[in-house]
Amino acid sequence: MKKSIIKCNALIALMIILVCNVASSQEAYQPTWESLDARPIPEWFQDAKFGVFIHWGPYSVPAWSPKGTYSEWYQYWLQSKSLFGNGKFKGDEVTNFHKKTYGDHFSYYNFGDMFKADLFNPDEWAKLFEKSGAKYIVLTSKHHDGYTLWPNKEANDRGFPWNSMEVGSKRDLVGELSAAVKKTDVKMGLYYSLYEWYHPWWQNDKTRFVDEHFLPQIKDLVQNYKPDILWADGEWDMEAEKWKSKEFLAWLFNESNVKKSIVVNDRWGKGIRKKHGGYFTTEYEAATPEFDKPWEECRGMGFSFGYNQNEDVQDYNSPKALVLNLINIVSTGGNLLLDIGPDGRGSIPVIMQERLLQIGSWLETNGEAIYGTRPWNDSFQWSLNGEKNYIPKQHYLGGDVILKQTIDPEPGYAVKELFFTQNDKAYFAITPQWKNEIVIRGFKPSSNTEITLLATGETLSGKQVGKDLIITMPTYQPNKFKETDAYAYAIKIINRKIN
Known about the structure:
The protein has 15 helices and 16 strands. By secondary structure, it is an alpha/beta fold. Strand 14 and strand 15 form a beta hairpin.
């Protein structure tokens, strides 16, 4: 009897192990796009809506490139004697600037020693991000020049030290900022460039670069700092198969320290963007895409991601333009990742701080219409007359495009009169400019609908005229509003019903 009980218990234990193994194998992600694409994106990312991008590295020392170009590409512009962006360029502008400023024999790698970050205060940065209303940040842990903002042995395999702990600041910049941000409610993300312009292995032996540099380096970053987001870039010269991206992502989702929580983007190989990976990314685009996945638009406050001292105040987007860009993106289901570029000493330029605080002030009043929302059936309402979607022909679409699409149209073009968002409790209609009456076409709420202006908390009256809801706005009294309220006005509609 005792033997049969033991056999029975052993059989049950074996069955439990088999069931657990089957369940485990079913949960594991395979290195195929079909499997990897099926991984759900954590809900917090879709709710966040606003993040801050940070481009910071040795390029922040010269901090110069022609207007309409990326200053963080300084090394490439310098050594290739080429440029692309908005405008017409000879190609040697950065080379000429460099020789005039630093001399003929000054290497880009000398900027590593000059990247002191001596004014970098991670706690102050974290406080600024909180005040901006951002729900996550993404820091460039390594850009295309290969310099890492954390101590890493692969950074030195080009033949000399090329990381922030040994060169320049002598600090673990990723670690310090991660620790500061994780004291707040803001999520911590890390950008990582897959390729490096002038790494000798990248230029001469890409297989070795992938196996001995890229893969161990990116795994070191993930395991040491446990980011909430891993933002890949620099993928475009090689197919995902050669990058071994699918194998890496399977490891990331199955074995890494952040396997359950990590969010990734879509930049994992040539031709992969907007097709595979995690959430989809756009860059300096003004169209409003219809994706079947969460997505994110990234752009700078001017045209450069890295700090560009060549940009003047007129090159920066106004706070109204930035807020309207945020609203436009959110109304179509996306997030805005807005970039700042600190200088080489670790100071965030004052105009960038001001813009973040202005956005934060508007969100403090109107965040209910942004955070955690999803699109309506219609993301926005166009005016009745004129051609839609004014988009100029240029490489990077500036933030001023949204002004042309809303309050300052070109002749013959329609404007977006209203933007719409919703959550499980209310609808929100956001108008870019104050009007005595707000007309929402094709909308019929229930008889007990409550309508509120978020900026003041005032109850508004609405009446049904045919298929349209007409909302009467109160008499405008400037003393009731903060300066930032004027960027856009959000109207909350609850207890509603759509016909």
